Amino acid sequence: MQLSINFRDVVSAKRRIEQHIKKTPIMTSSRLNHWLGHEILFKMECLQHVGAFKARGAMNAIQSYLESQEPPKKIITVSSGNHAQAIAWACDRLRIPADVYMDKAASSVKKNATRSYGATVIECETRLEAQERVAEAAETSDILMIPPYNHRDVIAGQGTCMLEVFDEINQPIDAVFAPCGGGGLISGCYVATKALSPETKVMGAEPVQANDAAQSIRLGRIVHLKDTPNTIADGVKTLSVGDLTFPQIQQLDGFYEVPEDDICYWTQWLQHLLKVHVEPTSAMSMSGVLVYLKAQSTPQRVMVVITGGNIASETMLKIWQDDHLAEVPRLSE
Amino acid sequence: MQLSINFRDVVSAKRRIEQHIKKTPIMTSSRLNHWLGHEILFKMECLQHVGAFKARGAMNAIQSYLESQEPPKKIITVSSGNHAQAIAWACDRLRIPADVYMDKAASSVKKNATRSYGATVIECETRLEAQERVAEAAETSDILMIPPYNHRDVIAGQGTCMLEVFDEINQPIDAVFAPCGGGGLISGCYVATKALSPETKVMGAEPVQANDAAQSIRLGRIVHLKDTPNTIADGVKTLSVGDLTFPQIQQLDGFYEVPEDDICYWTQWLQHLLKVHVEPTSAMSMSGVLVYLKAQSTPQRVMVVITGGNIASETMLKIWQDDHLAEVPRLSE
Question: Quick one: A310 and A225 in the same domain?
Answer without folding.
Answer: yes
